[in-house]
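Sorry, I am new here, but would you mind making up a protein's amino acid sequence and the tokens describing how it folds?
***
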Amino acid sequence: MTVARLSGETDHRYEQLRKLKAYLYPLGAETTHKLQGIFLQMTNDAEPETIVLPVQGRTLKIVHAAKGVGFFNFDELCTAALGAADYLAIAECLHTVILDGVPKLKLEQRNETLRFMTLIDTLYEAKVKLFMASSVPPEKLAPPGEHAFAFKRTVSRLMEMQGEDYRHQAHLA
């Protein structure tokens, strides 16, 4: 076997990411359709499959995934009783997460807010690429009250995750 070194300044695997908008709003059929299109583009039209991950003696199902890309809605990841271990398993399994249906968080959504913050922290630390649709821009997602200040870090990370520098970092899992 002959080994050929292909070196260059451009990593073509991430060139398709450059043209895609990472944060879409407001919510609706059009933004969901755009996210579905991103999924198809990122997976080269692969047929989605279910992935079952072992997490602390139980299983976590990723219902819609292909070629390292997972498509989720907010309720699947932040309304369901998931935690840091679940998000870490997702971040280790997937290099890209597509998240639809993120609402403007309300004071009474304490658990959902904390899960969302943990999800974003986990994806960020693992350098998972994120495409997301929300009802409002990132800076307006934060709920009022006790988590508003802590949520500023989440907003900062969401903003950074949209940038080209973040997108070109290698997935760490």
Observations:
- The helical segments are 15-18, 29-42, 74-79, 84-93, 110-125, 148-161, 164-167.
- The mean pLDDT is 92.
